[in-house]
Amino acid sequence: MTSLSQYLTxxxxxxxxxxxxxxxxxxxxxxxxxxxxxxRVVVDxxxxxxxxxxxxxxxxLKTVENGKFNxxxxxxxxxxxMFFIHELWRKYRLPYVIDYRxxxxxxxxxxxxxxxxxxxxxxxxxxxxxxxxxAIKYAAKIVEVTDYCKRDxxxxxxxxxxxxxxxxxxxxxxLFHEKYPRKDYLxxxxxxxxxxxxxxxxxxxxxxxxxxxxxxPIRVKHIGKKEGDLQEEFPETYRECGVKGYQxxxxxxSGMNILLIxxxxxxxxxxxxxxYIALNKPIIYIGTAPSExxxxxxxxxxxxxxxxxxxxxxxxxxxLDNCPKKLTEENLTEYSREYQNAKYVELLEKLRRK
Length: 354
Prior knowledge:
By secondary structure, the chain is an alpha/beta fold. The protein has helices at about 1-10, 50-65, 85-90, 115-140, 145-155, 200-210, 230-235, 245-255, 270-280, 290-300, 310-320, 335-350; strands spanning about 15-20, 40-45, 70-75, 95-100, 140-145, 165, 185-190, 220-225, 240, 260-265, 285, 305.
């Protein structure tokens, strides 16, 4: 949303954002600077949820009443806006778009909750359907972040295809000093969480360790918070690089032969895959397959999917014999955030109130 806000201002549009006070968020969520031309309406978050929803509602409606707006985007962050966003159309005839960057309510995962927790998840899901259905009914458009998410939302709420549109997260254009891979190792880089599928990660590291006696051993380098005791368990294969900023992370990854992604969900793409695509290096996907993310990786000529140990062994052996330098020779512009922002602005201009 910050990227889109900046793009909108660069195109000459005026942007007002109603948001929680920065003290609500942790340091990692505040790293991105706020675009200079974006006006903020800062709201405190109250401890009582019902009071907080009403307070947020009043601030949003007051902002709309006091301003001249053509359209509104609800980023479903915070989710509380879903309880009253429909009033923008019913009271003011202001068209609004609901943007599901992270459709966690109906996310399909192989790691299904069980017992009391599972029951609570189902109850929350059931109760939220009424809130979401009303918000969706009056929305001018629903934006989803992937094709599977669009499919799931259409099935969940029996929507028409033209009510929805997919707009990817996309990769940022960034300048950095590219590094070059070492020739004595086959280096694999992974950034962010690996806890999405720890068992798949351990199996992969075990498989990598079986190649330690070859002339070019395999090394997996992880950028991010320490997760478990993988370095102690796989000392010859796994290296922790610690937490790095975005720029340094991209520079470090640029010095790898291959990029690694671990996943367990059937739908969704996340944001990491787009950073990997921006670097245009071969990608290995390990975890649940087939999935939406595995199929995206498989679609590139040098994208590899490993759902079993046999597949891991075959892929690693092939890369040790001949490791390509690029993910693809195709044009990757459509995966950029600038391209996706342009799609978004085109959509908003079609829906805007004149």
